[in-house]
Automatic annotation (TrEMBL):
Record-annotated Glucose-6-phosphate dehydrogenase NAD-binding domain positions: 38-220
Pathway: Carbohydrate degradation; pentose phosphate pathway; D-ribulose 5-phosphate from D-glucose 6-phosphate (oxidative stage): step 1/3
Glucose-6-phosphate dehydrogenase C-terminal domain sequence ranges: 222-500
Keyword terms, alphabetized: Carbohydrate metabolism, Cytoplasm, Glucose metabolism, NADP, Oxidoreductase
Gene Ontology terms describing biological process: glucose metabolic process; pentose-phosphate shunt, oxidative branch
InterPro entries named among the record's database cross-references: G6P_DH (IPR001282), G6P_DH_AS (IPR019796), G6P_DH_C (IPR022675), G6P_DH_NAD-bd (IPR022674), NAD(P)-bd_dom_sf (IPR036291)
Its job: Catalyzes the rate-limiting step of the oxidative pentose-phosphate pathway, which represents a route for the dissimilation of carbohydrates besides glycolysis.
Entries under NCBIfam families matching the protein: zwf (TIGR00871)
Protein name: Glucose-6-phosphate 1-dehydrogenase
Cytoplasm is among the record's keywords: yes
Length: 517
């Protein structure tokens, strides 16, 4: 198989930085030679809204050089190079027309089907011609394929890539493939897909992308946990009462009801995005920052999760979801879910991890909420005001804040809830926080798999959720109705309360702004 030494990069052992521009002066990779980036599904929404803008931002920051990179779009649509460029142009922001045009000139388009050798042979010819025109050294070409496609076509597309489009040398060049979620619908389908792709590419060539792993605050979790002495003695069952990992959207399926109904909120959000966050919150300290050491610890904590209990699950479906003509009238697909994971190990025994996600709710946010136990001996009689909580706001308004009980200013010895606050928009005003896809594409070019999902990690994740998902599909666990614009089913708040979560009443965190100062 192609890939050779090019699939191992010195970047593997390096820590992440808050701004990609801080990496340009570091020698993270000694690789050189022509880089061909192929976006399959180039005319689709994902490619236009995420993939091409991410490539453009990397070009803006100097990580993609016009002298060594070329970008190819591949899809079934019968359009020209300029036709694809004009489709993309409207999604490229924050630069002059001249700079955008320079980037667009790097893009060529090849039309073909996803199961036809003829189309992929034409794609390979276009790539090879470009490599030759750039006076590429023999064996130093690098080929990156981004599958912005539904998983149903992954096997056929990967077979075509393997048969027609591999880097011709196994010496110093490489071929790498990025695949998007969902990776199957349950354990059996995920293992089948993994087996099919595993016959074509080795694990060092496959990059299973989960864009949550590219988010700034998610990437900060390892640093927070293992670089700060403050957290080391606190991060365990002796001090932590419960952990919530929450994803909320204030809109519904928005015309995607038929597609969403095949998956539901657990497959769409919880089994992948929130579970990846859970791993970083709950895992043990890796022996180094090498990708395999980090992923080993993630697999260990997943394998320590006990089976999910039905009485620790609340499902919901918002009123009006089935008004979409593409959604079956008898659909039991949840648009909301709150469930409890329990980890059977020395650090976390007895601590509930509440994973919660929903659509058509009262606000939009994603956050981690670590709630600590009550302080013993409540001499200030302030227990009713709330507990200490460490909150990591992933989106929007990225921030970390610690809720504390403090003395209320004045002559009386009265207490109130306040916070220690690190809001990124205020603290890092001059720093551009990269989008998740920018980081992950750059990681792939460098051969750094730290922020990608390994095959055994994927299997362990599906082993946790498949029994519950099958029970939902069989109607054994019902979705409760809830009104759009609310917190979801009231039963979800009751579950959190039953798990020991104490809600703080009368306190609302407000992101600070410069106008306050």
């Amino acid at each position: 198989m192609s890939g050779g030494s090019g699939d191992s990069s010195p970047s593997s052992g390096r820590a992440s930085f808050s701004s990609l521009s801080g990496l340009k002066d570091l020698e993270l990779s000694s690789e050189s030679g022509c880089l061909s980036i192929v976006v399959l599904g180039a005319s689709g929404d994902l490619a236009k809204k995420k993939t091409f803008p991410a490539l453009f931002h990397l070009f803006q920051q100097g990580f993609l050089q016009s002298g060594e990179v070329h970008i190819f779009g591949y899809a079934r649509s019968n359009i020209s190079d300029d036709g694809l460029r004009e489709r993309i142009r409207g999604y490229l922001k924050g630069a002059s027309d001249e700079h955008i045009s320079q980037f667009l000139q790097l893009i060529k388009y090849v039309s073909g089907s996803y199961n036809s050798g003829e189309g992929f042979a034409s794609l390979n010819n276009a790539i090879s011609e470009n490599e030759t025109s750039k006076n590429n050294k023999p064996g130093s070409s690098r080929r990156l394929f981004y599958l912005a496609l539904p998983p149903s076509v992954y096997p056929s597309v990967c077979k075509m890539i393997r048969s027609y489009c591999m880097n011709p040398s196994s010496h110093s060049g490489w071929t790498r493939v990025i695949v998007e979620k969902p990776f199957g619908k349950d354990l059996e389908s995920a293992e089948e897909l993994s087996a099919q792709l595993g016959e074509l590419f080795n694990e060092q060539q496959l990059y299973r992308i989960d864009h949550y792993l590219g988010k700034e605050l998610v990437q900060n979790l390892l640093v927070l946990r293992f670089a700060n002495r403050l957290f080391l003695p606190l991060w365990n069952r002796d001090n932590i009462a419960n952990v919530q990992i929450v994803f909320r959207e204030d809109f519904g399926t928005e015309g995607r009801g038929g597609y969403f109904d095949q998956y539901g909120i657990i497959r769409d959000i919880i089994q992948n995005h929130l579970l990846q966050v859970f791993c970083l919150v709950a895992m043990e300290k890796p022996v180094s920052l090498k990708p395999e050491h980090i992923r080993d610890e993630k697999v260990k904590v997943l394998q320590s999760v006990t089976p999910i209990k039905h009485d620790e699950v609340v499902l919901g479906q918002y009123d009006g979801y089935k008004d979409d003509s593409t959604v079956p009238d008898d659909s039991n697909t949840p648009t909301f879910a709150s469930l409890v994971l329990r980890v059977n190990n020395e650090r976390w025994e007895g601590v509930p991890f509440i994973l919660k996600a929903g659509k058509a709710l009262n606000n939009r946010k994603a956050e981690i909420r670590v709630q600590f136990k009550d302080a013993p001996g409540d001499i200030f009689k302030c227990k009713k005001q709330g507990r200490n909580e460490f909150v990591i706001r992933l989106q929007p308004s990225e921030a970390m804040y610690m809720k504390l009980t403090v003395k209320k200013p004045g002559l009386e010895m009265a207490t109130e809830q306040s916070e220690l606050d690190l809001s990124y928009g205020l603290r890092y005003q001059d720093v551009k926080i990269p989008e998740a896809y920018e980081r992950l594409i750059l990681d792939t070019i460098r051969g750094d798999q730290q922020h990608f999902v390994r095959r055994d990690e994927l299997k362990a994740a599906w082993e946790i959720f498949t029994p519950l998902l099958h029970d939902i599909d069989d109607g054994k666990v019902k979705a409760l109705p809830y009104k759009p614009g609310t917190r979801g089913p009231p039963e979800a708040d009751e579950l959190s309360k039953r798990m020991g979560y104490v809600q703080t009443h009368g306190y609302v965190w407000i992101p600070p702004t410069l106008s306050k100062f």
